[in-house]
């Protein structure tokens, strides 16, 4: 069942906080920012909407979720309805963000940028951020240069077009025009993952998705010294 992807697994299992460190890391990153009830925030690739919900509940911010996967959109919508949160949810791509220039004070990209056309999405992030706005990202990063064969295995599993070292990320953000580029390493492997997982299973899902889950486990363990993540914060 080669056609089922890691994202099919995340969507059908309804994994919330699908990024390293989970909601706890998110909360500590947000606590360092000047967010209030006037802040206009885009959760780019919001998944099932756990962070978007937190942004409204904690700060009363004006929150927008953008997500490409229809199953994720459905689950996020359900979350916001159930909790009665006034969060706008838009189905679309971060490579072509359906918002006007200089709309947002903050953009969050929690394990999303790594999976798309990075220069294209960064150009869009820059365009829709206000001057002085902040982009906060938590993205997969390799700790050392790796062989072609290793890269192919990882890139094939995650369906990504490149794997970046910290320096690679830095260059990309710089090229996109961002300033105050700060990159924090937590020095934890991806296997550290999200210690407080949340699931929202679809009624029906392909049993082969367990195979994808298993394959993911194998990759994070095999590359635990190599495959990590960085918290990247920048200003427009
Ligand atoms: C690893 S998950 C992270 C989800 C969420 N940010 C979280 O932390 O729980 C990546 C998410 O990005 C979404 N995604 C992938 N490509 C996208 C794109 N081009 N535009 C918007 N969302 C995208 C996927 O559907 C998935 O929900």
UniProtKB/TrEMBL annotation:
Classification via InterPro entries: Methyltransf_11, SAM-dependent_MTases_sf
Domain Methyltransferase type: start-end pairs: 42-136
Stretches that traverse the bilayer: none
GO biological process: methylation
Record carries keyword Transferase: yes
One of the Pfam families matching this protein, by short name: Methyltransf_11
Keyword field contains Methyltransferase: yes
Protein name per the record: Class I SAM-dependent methyltransferase
Lineage summary: Bacteria, Bacillati, Bacillota, Bacilli, Bacillales
